[in-house]
Amino acid sequence: MRVRNKPWAPEKIAAYPQYIVSNPDEWKGKWTDRFKRKQPLHIEIGTGKGQFITEMAKAHPDINYVGVELQTNVIVLALEKLIEEDLPNLQLLHVNGEELTAFFLPNEVDQIYLNFSDPWPKTRHEKRRLTYRSFLETYQTILRENGEIHFKTDNQKLFEYSLGSFSQYGLILKQVWLDLHQSEFVGNIMTEYEEKFSSRGQRIYRVEAYFPCTK
Amino acid sequence: MRVRNKPWAPEKIAAYPQYIVSNPDEWKGKWTDRFKRKQPLHIEIGTGKGQFITEMAKAHPDINYVGVELQTNVIVLALEKLIEEDLPNLQLLHVNGEELTAFFLPNEVDQIYLNFSDPWPKTRHEKRRLTYRSFLETYQTILRENGEIHFKTDNQKLFEYSLGSFSQYGLILKQVWLDLHQSEFVGNIMTEYEEKFSSRGQRIYRVEAYFPCTK
After folding, report:
1. Least crowded by CB within 10 Å, which of A178, A214, B94, B138?
2. CATH class for domain A37-210?
């Protein structure tokens, strides 16, 4: 996502340590302490401007959410939403998705969301896709047994690639949607990007997959 | 497929025992004897009017093909194509796909094609879909280790269902195409149905999947 530089972003992030984690290794294995209640932990990798995770947190007060985003100029917009809503079950984590094992203990996470990840269409950039096997290894490590990945995208090639990558890594596809907005799926919460592109008639693809018990 | 009744079909089928097998249990484990050459065996379940399997046999003389079709009024049209072409590497089998283990030995088949199978959209008819788990069990039995299933359809719901069914059964998705005719796939051979529906702008979905070595 290309966004305008916001020189004020780092200062703002530093001013709200109760919402956004900047020293995340301190919290490894202790995420529960940052929430009001001990309940399942779902994380979104690449939270962007935060509409999805904020709305999810409002819709599901019985789940704790962490939105992970590397880009300072983007996560600060998610932070602004969180400040306004003051949700007890949402936290933000300002790091690179690649480094998740430094911030979560094995089995600490119950579910992972990937929404409209960068497709990195060139073959030589395959390793950067968030559904490449090295990322799946990371997700498997931090997810509990039978933990699920819920992935949606409007990018056909990325979805084709990801179904293969998931399956070849050993994930089981629980359910696939090839046109989410025309389906019977209930409770879909749209990202900013999803609102924009689906209104232009773009199909949205979705898959739920899980790691079988092999740990 | 709904087709006109052809009272002459049974007689025609009986007249060409060199092309179409009517006593298939005799040939279990001996399919190679019905072909000129000993080479890999690929079968199509639901061969219909036979355009796909006939063209495949012409394009790949190094592979032996068997087209399996239950409907007498349909397979007779595939037979007519075969009579005209007189292909040494194509045979027809006039039986129900459910009963394949009665006609092929374990590991006798190298690859299975499913093309535009009946979607049986009602949930109560799930068991009739050719990608339902009981059929997958049959395919696994007759396929060799790492044997592949190549499935294509224009039916979105059937494709969604089948990806899940394959994965949950333990098949690994090798590659997925969500719009075959707009893809870089080379060598696609169309069925009669595919020609008709893709010319109307219908997307064609395709997947290649294999059973990992677990026998």
Report:
1. A214
2. alpha beta
